[in-house]
Design a protein that fits this description.
By secondary structure, the chain is mainly α. It contains 9 helices and 2 strands. A two-stranded antiparallel sheet has the order 1-2.
């Protein structure tokens, strides 16, 4: 029996799986379009549900890409560039569109915020020093889907929401760090536990139609304090 045929078949199967990971990553853009459609139809809960699915895709495609050696087996497409394109849609463009809705941010605050978010994020996504050697983000990582989620859930005054957006924009370009929950190894156990708390609180918020109860707000606030504070702790602690 000729073993070469079996090896060739395995190679073809591996390449198919590798290209399948690219398709999975690209699926995030389609999910972003579904979220945008929900924004147009005044269903922000559904929009965030689609963005939540996109977050799950974004979380799993990286480990799958490493598992199936996508860089070696599916070299026609650049996975890193594809990921940035999709992330810009789901992390930036759709949330910026949400800011145009009067129930999210009164005008002209919403338009100003949306313009600032898209302009600054386009520059940030092209930053070749976006991540440190140990996979922390340099500057606020343009997760505007999360910021807008908090703005809608907590419903602050328009001026305060705009101030938060402007501060976060400035933080994109200053020497501070933010944790990558999946890639950073340091404090990973606690980080994943806090991420789990956030998922539960965010899910409850969606279930409650983006009008969370006190417990859900407490969970969201605690998770936000942890993820923001972790960067400050890392800046003071020795790296390694």
């Amino acid at each position: 029996m000729d073993d070469s045929g079996g090896e060739e078949g395995t190679g073809k199967g591996s390449r198919a799986l590798a290209y399948g990971v690219h398709v999975l990553t690209a699926l995030g853009a389609a999910l972003g379009l579904l979220a945008l459609q929900a924004v147009f139809t005044d269903d922000l809960s559904q929009a965030f549900a689609w963005l939540g699915v996109a977050l799950v895709v974004d979380a799993v495609d990286g480990p799958l890409a490493r598992r199936f050696s996508v860089k070696q087996r599916a070299r026609r497409y650049d996975g890193a560039q594809l990921d940035l394109v999709v992330d810009f849609v789901t992390y930036v463009f759709v949330p910026a569109a949400m800011l145009l809705r009067p129930e999210v941010l009164a005008q002209p605050y919403g338009l100003i915020a949306g313009l600032v978010v898209t302009l600054a994020s386009a520059l940030y996504f092209a930053d070749t020093g976006m991540k440190t050697d140990d996979w922390w983000f340099r500057g606020f990582p343009a997760v505007w889907n999360i910021v807008v989620f908090y703005i809608i859930a907590f419903a602050p005054p328009a001026w305060l929401a705009l101030a938060v957006i402007l501060v976060a924009t400035v933080l994109m370009f200053v020497p501070v760090v933010f944790v990558h929950p999946v890639r950073v190894r340091r404090w990973r156990g606690l980080t994943m536990a806090m991420l789990g708390l956030w998922v539960i609180a965010a899910g409850a918020t969606l279930w409650q139609g983006m009008a969370p109860d006190a417990w859900s707000k407490a969970g969201l606030a605690l998770a936000a304090c942890y993820f923001v504070g972790l960067g400050l702790i890392r800046a003071r602690a020795p790296h390694g």
